[in-house]
Amino acid sequence: MNSRVTLGLAGLLLLGAIIAGYWGLTLSRQPVVEPAAAPAAVAVVSPNAAPAIPVEDPTRQPVVVLLRDIAPFVKITAADVAVEKLRTAPAGSLGAVDQVIGRTPWRPLSAGSWLSEESFEAGSQLARMIRPGERALAVAVDEVINAGGQLAPGDYVDVLLFLRKDESNSQASAQLVVPAVRVLVVGSQMGLTNEGQPASPARTDEERLRQDQQRMAARSVVLAVPEPLLSRLMLASGAGVLRLAVRSADEQQLAKYWAGENDVATRLDTPRRDLLEFSQLSLTPPPRPVAVAGQPGARKPAVEVIRGAEAAQPTP
C-alpha cells in the first residue's frame, strides 16, 4: 500500500478520535436535569358540602355544671350553666339546662359543681349532713379530748365521762355515755353531706394544708347524736370531763351508715354500760334500801319532855 494512503487514513482516524473525545467531554459537562416533582394532590371541597359532624360517644351522659359561683336566692340563668358529657353521671344529677334555669338555690353554690334536686333544697351544710332522728351537737375539746388532734370527719367515737370525787359524788367514776357516734365537723373542717359531696372541699394543696392545721388545733367537734341519747350527752357534758375514744375503721360503721344503718349508737347502748353507774345518766332511780328479815329496823329518835325537875319520854 502506498505510504501516502496510509498516512491519510491515520490522519482521518486521529481526527475522528479527537472529535469523539471532544463530544464526550461536552456531554459530560451538561447539567443533569432532575425530573419535576409530581404536583401534590389538592383536595377539592365543594362550596355546598356540609361540614363534618363530630360523632358523640354514646357512653357519656350529660350533666349540668355551674360555670360561676351562685349566691343564695339568686336565679340561675343560661349563662351560669353548661352541659358536660361524663362517662359516669353522679347520682341524682340533672342533665338538661331547662331543669335549672330560673330556679333559686337556698345556699351558695360554687363553680364547677354539678347540680341536683338537693341543690335547691333548704338547709345549711350541717343540716344536710344528718338524717331524720339524728341531732348535730357540738362538744368542746382540747388536744387530749380530740384524740391528740387526729380526729377527722367520718370517724366514729365513744363518748366517755369521768367524774371526780367531791361532795356530791362519793367516789370517782368513769363510764361510757354514748357509744359509736359519727364525727361531722372537726374545727372548721366538715365531712360529706347526705348527697355524698364534701361540704367544704379543698381545691388546692394550700387549702388542704390549712384545713389539716385547723383540724389539729380544733377547739370543738360536732357529733351526730341519736335523738334518744341527746339529753344524756348534754347532761354528761356539764357533769364532768368528757373523752372521745376513736373506734376502729375495720368496723365499717361509716359504710353501714351510707348503706342506711344509722342506729348503731342505740343498738350498742345498754342500761348498765360500764364500770360505775351514775344514776342520773343511766336514767334509772338509785336503788332503795331493802329491809332484811330478822334485822331490827332503825329506831326513830325519841323526844324527851322536861317539866320542871321531871323528865319523861311520851309514847307515840
TrEMBL record:
TM helices/strands, residue ranges: none
Domain SAF: 61-121
Gene for this chain: cpaB
NCBIfam families: pilus_cpaB
Species per Swiss-Prot/TrEMBL record: Pseudomonas shahriarae
UniProt cross-references to CDD domains, sorted A to Z: SAF_CpaB_FlgA_like
Residues in the signal sequence: none
Highest taxon, organism lineage: Bacteria
The name this protein goes by in its record: Flp pilus assembly protein CpaB
UniProt-listed SMART domains: SAF
